[in-house]
Amino acid sequence: MSSMPSSRRCLPVVLFATAVCLLAGTPARADAQLYAAVYLGGNATHAATVSIDAPEAGLVADFRKVEFAARPLESPQYYGIRVGSLFGAARRIGVEFEFIHLKVYSETNRVYDIEWPPGTVVPAVVLPMDAYVQRYSMSHGLNFLLINVVSRTPIGDGRAAFIARAGAGPTRPHSESVVLNQTQEQYEYAGMGAHASAGIDVRLRGRMSLMTEYKFTYAKPRITLAAGGRGQTTAASHHVAVGLAFNISR
């Protein structure tokens, strides 16, 4: 598949720049502090069952312990953006919106155990998954849209802070599938997801700071396949992210 148009690849930079401009022009308030951040990173997703329910295409089966690749440096890259506000004079608690663009690629060239209806488990056979499912991926993002609660705890002289967050929201992946050589791809709502992270923010200069964090996301995206079929898997992912934040340090 070709890469995304350059304007779409630049979306996180545009959104972050817009947020920074807005925040820079916003007078400081004693009871709230607006901030924005953008980051890059990578993720690793646990192996999971991929369920294919496409009777009209000719396949109903569960592929067990399917391995996933992330390819975070391939275009479109892994990235995230967030905009939020910390409240109170100490600015310890806040609420934010976060968008996470992670990718999930099923390793369909491998051999997996398959469960066929009505529930008989078939041991691994010679044929790999791509004899049935040539592609099952979300290469333009699983795309978490989250509302997080944020906790900020200053460290030492206050130039650094420990920041934890947790939240939930819808997932809107761009899914691409090829089942028995029938292709389907689209953006769609694929169910809710959850997220938690913890990391360190260190003030660099002025209002800018460097952020590093560990993240965990969980979702069970249910996607549309060709001929009206449906596919589902569990996406439990570990992330490491590094980026820049604006106005979160005091």
Task: Describe the 3D structure.
This protein is mainly beta and 250 residues long. It has one domain: Porin. The chain contains two helices and 19 strands. It has helices spanning 6-9, 11-24; strands at residues 32-45, 48-54, 59-66, 68-69, 79-87, 93-101, 104-106, 114-116, 120-122, 133-138, 144-155, 160-170, 174-179, 182-187, 192-205, 208-219, 222-224, 230-232, 235-246. The strands form three sheets. Strands 1-5-6-11-12-15-16-19 form an eight-stranded antiparallel β-barrel. Strand 2 and strand 3 (59-66) form a beta hairpin. It is elongated, with a radius of gyration of 21 Å.
Q: Quote the beta fraction.
A: over 45%
End-to-end CA span: 44 Å
Order of helices and strands: HHEEEEEEEEEEEEEEEEEEE
**CATH architecture call:** Beta Barrel
SS-based structural class? mainly beta
Identify low-pLDDT runs.
Answer: 1-9, 22-28
- Give a count of the beta strands, DSSP E runs of length 2 or more: 19
Domain count, please report it. 1
CATH hierarchy class name: Mainly Beta
Using the coordinates shown, work out and report the CATH topology.
Porin
What overall form do the CA principal axes indicate? elongated
Mean pLDDT over the full residue set: 87
Q: What is the radius of gyration?
A: 21 Å
What's a concise summary of this model?
The chain has 250 residues and is mainly beta. It has a single domain, classed as Porin (Beta Barrel), CATH 2.40.160.20. It is built from 2 helices and 19 strands.
